[in-house]
Specification:
The protein has one domain (2-264): Alpha/Beta hydrolase fold, catalytic domain (Rossmann fold, 3-Layer(aba) Sandwich), CATH 3.40.50.1820. It has helices at 2-27, 38-41, 117-132, 149-160, 175-182, 188-191, 198-201, 222-231, 255-264, and strands at 46-52, 58-64, 73-79, 99-103, 137-147, 165-169, 209-214, 236-241. The protein is of the alpha/beta class. The protein has an eight-stranded mixed beta sheet, sandwiched between helices. The protein has nine helices and eight strands.
Amino acid sequence: MVGWIVIGAAVVFGVPAAMYLVQDSLLFFPQPLIGPGPAARAARPVEDVAFETADGVRLRGWLIHRQAGADRAPLLIFYGGNAEEISWRAGEPWPPAWSLALVNYRGYGTSEGKPSESDLCADALLVFDALARRPDVDAKRIVLVGSSLGSGVATHVAAQRPVAGAILISPFDSMTEVGRRHYPWLPVGTLLKHPFDSASRAPEIRAPLLAIAGGRDGIIPPVHSKRLFDAWGGPKRWVEIPQAGHNDISGWPQYWPAIGEFLRELPAS
């Protein structure tokens, strides 16, 4: 009997302890820079950019300039998923009237450091401020684009800075709630170090929102996206693509027209 008690205790306490210790590796999957980079993928001028954080970490990425137009361009800032090195996004059909900033998280691509929620969010504010100060960026027309994990980073920035809009792809209410869905047998709320509680930030955000969710998303089921959408304080538009999953959502025909229409309807200044 004592032996079974010991085994039971080991399971009850050991498994949560092990999950706590390895959670960073379960949440963040830093990827190296693979392939030719944005310069070979984008049909527009590409500028290498770098930012140094307060703790001495160097973040690296690219600014893909708009094709033509006024000197001060509207800007999209993209935040990727938890296993995404984002240089490949330069080859996607982003609206040509907008510039696009792609900066890899700590530990991703050639950015230095190790990712955490607090660092990713602080870094995103630093990068936003630096880009907003550029003379070739219209600081009043910056739209944040967050995919999956990146929706949590984008929501944090939108709650802290004046933005023209936010496009959240496969977003979630909080990592805690998503974790509870996938690990119902664990005390996720107690264990999780990186809660990314977007739903608590959303009510104070007044920027327009476009939320795009996949009806067959098994990683972030659309119920979690809808909870964040419902909590958002500004004007909002919901687009659910019924047949889309988590990783193929941008390949469906409704995806890019929804983004283009949202951007066209934003105020010009």
